[in-house]
Amino acid sequence: MSDNQLVILSKAFSVDIIRLCENLRERKKATAILNQLLRSGTSIGANIHEANYASSKADFINKFQIALKECYETDYWLDIFHDAGILTDEEFTDMYRKCSKIRKLLIASTTTAKKNSERTD
Q1: Which of 40, 42, 58, 95 has the fewest C-beta atoms under 10 angstroms from its C-beta?
Q2: CA-to-CA distance for 64 and 6, rounded, in angstroms?
Q3: Any idea where the domains of the chain sit in the sequence?
Q4: Looking at residue 86, what DSSP letter applies?
Q5: Phi, psi of 54 (to 5 degrees)
Q6: Nearest to 17 by CA among 98, 72, 118
């Protein structure tokens, strides 16, 4: 899958996170910590998008690594919200699956970028 596909998936995931958080806010669920999920979930795509305009290979890799960290944080919040009964099994499974797909692509892309960077250094 190309970086362009990663941009598309992460942007769609950001939209899904926004809609999920709006839905939870309307249901008056976890309003005190809802922004944690919103921030980490939308930051993934923002960092992937920003990587496309990186000033160097090192900057590109760094942006992908930040996006990967945000994926792990989003996984954490999804898990907490699910365990607390705030997310239904269906909501959790859908969002976790999407986040996991992005995470796997980020790991592969970061690994490839690091190998390519080592060859040219």
Answers
A1: 58
A2: 11
A3: 3-120
A4: S
A5: -65, 150
A6: 98
Question: What is the average per-residue pLDDT within 26-40?
Answer: 94
- Backbone dihedral angles phi then psi of residue 50, each to the nearest 5 degrees: -65, -30
Asked if 70 and 40 touch (Cβ cutoff 8 Å), the reply is: yes
The full DSSP string for 21-84 is HHHHHHTT-STTTHHHHHHHHHHHHHHHHHHTT-SSHHHHHHHHHHHHHHHHHHHHHHHHHHHT
Give every CB contact of residue 115 below 8 A, 6+ residues apart in sequence.
none
pLDDT recorded at residue 33: 93
| DSSP classification of residue 7 | H
Query: Which residue, chain included where needed, has tokens 């970061």?
Result: 110
Q: H or E segment at 18?
A: helix 3-26
How many angstroms separate the CA atoms of 72 and 67, rounded?
Answer: 9
Q: How many residues does the chain have?
A: 121
Is the CATH number of domain 3-120 1.20.1440.60? Answer: yes
